[in-house]
DNA sequence: GCGATCAGTT
DNA sequence: CACAACTGATCGC
């Protein structure tokens, strides 16, 4: 359940998913999805009154969320104040202080969050940096890399802060089977039951919340049927869903509800009251979608668990697992991460500490082996407008382009940034693989997150048949210390590695965090002063043997840095994009040893009319002067 | 009487 | 098995 107070440090004049207290004074409201715990205060009379006296305050959300919200008469008054935004279409919004007229511009982009119909993340881009508010989300591993608007050209945008759905950000919830795997299990169970006779029916015991719709559509497709629900009104403008639901009770799959549905079920009645068709009693099973989680190395899992003679629980999650969140964060590498949910049994301080492992590390000088020198003083380049399909590699916090004499070194910069990726994520066990065995002792598996796992590297070793398998095992265990929660809080603290980080692409330092006004109550970090960053060397060392899936997938790119390879594909790509963007601006790339053919293509800048081509001896003199540090007449 | 809040339940 | 919402008790306006 979200405990987010509604405001972000960077843009405190907007409120998200909270509409009470201080949020009443916001200049703009954002609703990520239509679940009640994200709508606190949304039907309050105070807010209603504020809207009536305001000319500029609006509520921004997706079209689907707007539809779902207005379907509830309690929120109908919002109609004229809602602005629905298209997904993945950056939109500029003016944040106006109506008393003073003061104005701030921010660009917001809605990104599909995979939590329930209409659910989105909000990406804000403005003077205080790029900030991602995730709302509630379910991303599978690798999903972040597929979202174009989290990227700028070929690079991930520089994210100052992520306000994170941390519902399962706890190693206990290491893996949650993927949607596909869960769905497959449910389809199988339903198939086995309803195929027996037309009196065999299934009751999907879903909670009163949006988010199960994809289950309905998949079941509907698979069995060519509709699912019985209490009401269709909320879906009336959503043909994708509407065609799969019905209020006709004569169907074998029900997701209807009743306050006493469990009692009904005990009495062999469906929540809608159905108990027999044509005089023959129904044979009902209930399937309750519930979250199931498994340890890091657990291979024996089952997405369906029988809980009674005709009751089942089926794995289902609205939220990303620990490993999915880690994958997401290690891809984005934000400077700050703020949890919006505290997992049960944990404290804010604990979660905050654990999240710091996933924050971008402060520039670690020992890693800055090479810094390209010789940057030319150059003109400022206009940022291309949104929608430009040929974006240059560019630092997203400023307008500078990464124009250096050696463009191919940009690859190195990128890799250096990637090597700062938070470590410690062990690759989760493939669920597809693991589901082949049936075990339901979830208590046992839930604790297996402490176990070791094979990293990809180790798997490669096995493939190469280095040693006998018996020998390989102890080595593995030594290298393999999956983090347990306790590890993070019982060890010595290190110094802060989180504060401002220089962008390795330019000399501009990213905007410092903690800028702008802060309301202590809203933004309390519960951090003792001077104790910002706190992880033990022991932990770091043990974690360094793990690399996330994401990291692993990046590593092959690192190899491209071999000089002979860099001069091939990479340079060409960089050059092309630079040319396109700079188009006539000062740009004099100089490669180490330029061949004639390269010279003709890479130095495509006309000479000054009065200039002449320097002779070799003149050049030699010039180089000597340069080498001795003499000033040159320019 | 209405709404907010909390604890308990599903 | 920790989703999110509903129910009922209590309190304040």
TrEMBL record:
Main localization (coarse): nucleus
Q: Which UniProt keywords apply?
A: DNA damage, DNA recombination, DNA repair, Endonuclease, Exonuclease, Hydrolase, Nuclease, Nucleus
Q: Name one GO cellular component term.
A: nucleus
Q: What is the protein named? A: Protein artemis
Q: Which residues form the signal peptide?
A: none
Q: Name one Pfam family in it.
A: DRMBL
Q: Which CDD domains match?
A: artemis-SNM1C-like_MBL-fold
> In which residue ranges is the amino acid composition biased (Basic and acidic residues)?
467-478
Q: Which family is this sequence assigned to? A: Belongs to the DNA repair metallo-beta-lactamase (DRMBL) family.
Q: Which GO terms describe its biological process?
A: DNA recombination; double-strand break repair via nonhomologous end joining; interstrand cross-link repair; telomere maintenance
Domain of life where this protein originates: Eukaryota
């Amino acid at each position: 359940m979200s405990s987010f107070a509604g405001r972000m440090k960077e843009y405190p004049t907007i409120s998200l998913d909270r509409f009470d207290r201080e949020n009443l004074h916001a200049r703009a409201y954002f609703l990520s999805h239509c679940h009640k715990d994200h709508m606190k205060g949304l039907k309050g009379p105070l807010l209603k009154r504020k809207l009536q006296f305001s000319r500029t305050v609006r509520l921004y959300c997706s079209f689907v969320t707007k539809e779902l919200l207005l379907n509830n008469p309690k929120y109908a008054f919002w109609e004229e104040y809602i602005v629905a935004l298209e997904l993945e279409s950056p939109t500029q919004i003016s944040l106006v202080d109506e008393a003073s007229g003061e104005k701030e511009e921010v660009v917001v982009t809605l990104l599909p969050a995979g939590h329930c119909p209409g659910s989105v993340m909000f990406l804000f881009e403005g003077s205080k940096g790029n900030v991602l508010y995730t709302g509630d989300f379910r991303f599978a591993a690798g999903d972040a890399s597929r979202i174009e608007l989290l990227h700028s050209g070929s690079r991930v945008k520089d994210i100052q802060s992520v306000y994170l759905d941390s519902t399962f950000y706890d190693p206990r919830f290491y893996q949650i089977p993927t949607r596909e795997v869960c769905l497959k299990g449910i389809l199988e169970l339903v198939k086995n039951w309803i195929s027996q006779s037309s009196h065999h029916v299934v009751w999907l015991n879903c909670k009163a919340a949006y988010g199960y719709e994809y289950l309905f559509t998949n079941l509907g497709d698979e069995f060519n049927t509709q699912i019985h629900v209490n009401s269709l009104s909320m879906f009336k403008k959503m043909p994708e869903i509407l065609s799969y639901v019905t209020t006709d009770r004569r169907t074998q799959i029900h997701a209807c509800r009743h306050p006493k549905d469990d009692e009904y079920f005990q009495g062999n009645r469906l929540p809608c009251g159905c108990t027999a068709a044509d005089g023959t009693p129904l044979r009902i099973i209930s399937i309750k979608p519930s979250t199931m989680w498994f340890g890091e190395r657990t291979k024996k899992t089952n997405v369906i668990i029988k809980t009674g003679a005709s009751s089942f629980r089926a794995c289902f999650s609205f939220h990303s697992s620990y490993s999915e969140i880690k994958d997401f964060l290690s891809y984005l590498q934000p400077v700050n991460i703020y949890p919006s949910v505290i997992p049960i049994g944990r404290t804010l301080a604990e979660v905050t500490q654990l999240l710091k492992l996933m924050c971008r590390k402060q520039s670690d000088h020992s890693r800055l082996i090479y810094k390209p020198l010789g940057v030319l003083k150059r003109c400022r380049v206009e940022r291309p407008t949104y929608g430009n399909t040929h974006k240059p590699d560019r630092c997203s916090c400023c307008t500078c382009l990464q124009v250096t004499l050696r463009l191919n070194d940009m690859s190195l910069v990128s890799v250096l940034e990637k090597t700062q990726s938070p470590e410690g994520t062990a690759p989760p066990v493939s669920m597809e693989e693991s589901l082949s065995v049936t075990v339901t002792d979830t208590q046992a598996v839930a604790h297996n997150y402490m176990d070791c796992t094979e990293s990809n590297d180790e798997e490669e070793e096995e493939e190469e048949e280095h040693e006998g398998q018996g020998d390989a095992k102890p080595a593995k265990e030594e290298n393999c210390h999956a983090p347990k929660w306790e590890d993070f809080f019982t060890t010595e603290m290190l110094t802060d590695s989180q504060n401002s980080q220089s962008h390795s692409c330019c000399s501009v330092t990213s905007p410092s965090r903690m800028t702008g006004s802060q309301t202590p109550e809203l933004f309390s970090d519960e951090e003792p002063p001077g104790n910002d960053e706190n992880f033990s060397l022991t932990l770091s060392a043990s974690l360094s043997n793990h690399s996330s899936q994401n990291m692993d997938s990046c590593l092959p790119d690192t190899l491209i840095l071999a000089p002979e390879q860099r001069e091939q594909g990479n340079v060409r790509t960089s050059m092309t994009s630079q040319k396109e963007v700079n188009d006539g601006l000062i740009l004099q790339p100089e490669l180490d040893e330029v061949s004639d053919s390269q010279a003709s293509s890479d130095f495509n800048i006309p000479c000054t009319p009065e200039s002449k081509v320097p002779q070799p001896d003149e050049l030699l003199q010039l180089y000597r002067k340069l080498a001795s540090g003499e000033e040159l007449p320019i």
